[in-house]
Design goal:
The protein is built from six helices and eleven strands. The protein has 239 residues and is α+β, with helices and mostly antiparallel strands. The chain is globular and about 50 Å long.
């Protein structure tokens, strides 16, 4: 467990060139943010979008796994989740920093229907509407690992978390952000104290006690984000 940012993108623009334009705009914004690295845009179609068809050492394997979407198949008293592979994909990978998961960004198109065969569901071999119209993306990035001392501690965690948040801010500006859930609660509050509280909890779990000071490095990381609410000279300290 720990701070994870879940996010979804969506566009109803019909043409692949339009999707590429939007993803390119997001990548340019990512290059202006303090990500450790930003990958090139990849475009795939057909079976090349299926991670099951790529090799284990494919550098884009995790991106392709995240590109898949789940739709629910009614099954008795519950639902069975069916994985839907995109038919077209335009995406790139960002690496926020040491200890952090990649934050993959892109847009995909999916088939209107798929044939499903869930043995646990009666009469399940049939065509199922996916209801995945237009271009969309749904992914997540866990930032907790960036807080480990060997990765740079809280300053690194804050830089990673804010970098992802600011990239999603830009997605909102260009009208393709459809949802964000930030387990660190920073997206909603824009208050660094929420993230320092998460830090305290993580340090207390790992070492048995919170740290008292975060230092100038954290103040610098907070300063990169003008919309963060700072609380006077002690804003870079854990209370």
């Amino acid at each position: 467990m720990g701070p994870t940012i879940h996010y979804a993108l969506r566009s109803n623009l019909p043409k692949p060139k339009q999707a590429h334009f939007l993803v390119s705009a997001l990548r340019r914004r990512a290059l202006d943010l303090p990500f450790e690295s930003v990958g090139e845009i990849i475009e795939r179609s057909g079976s090349d979008c299926d991670f099951n068809q790529c090799s284990e050492d494919d550098p884009h394997r995790w991106l392709l796994i995240q590109a898949g979407r789940c739709v629910k198949l009614p099954c008795g008293d519950g639902c069975h989740c069916v994985k839907v592979t995109p038919t077209e994909l335009v995406a790139f990978e960002t690496f926020p920093g040491p200890g952090c998961e990649p934050a993959n960004i892109g847009l995909c198109r999916y088939p209107a229907t798929i044939e499903v065969n869930a043995p646990e569901c009666r009469d399940s071999k049939r065509r199922l509407r996916t209801n995945l119209a237009g271009w969309s993306w749904s992914s997540f990035c866990k930032t907790r690992g960036a807080a480990h001392q060997e990765c740079g501690g809280f300053a690194n965690f804050l830089r990673c978390h804010l970098s992802v948040v600011h990239l999603l801010d830009y997605a909102k500006q260009i009208h393709i952000l459809s949802g964000v859930t930030d387990e660190g609660e920073f997206w909603e509050n824009r208050n660094a104290e929420w993230l320092t509280r998460q830090w305290n909890e993580m340090v207390a779990t790992a070492f048995g006690k919170p740290q008292n000071r975060l230092g100038e490095a954290v103040a610098s990381a907070i300063a990169m984000s003008p919309d963060v609410e700072a609380r006077g000279p002690d804003a870079a300290h854990v209370s």
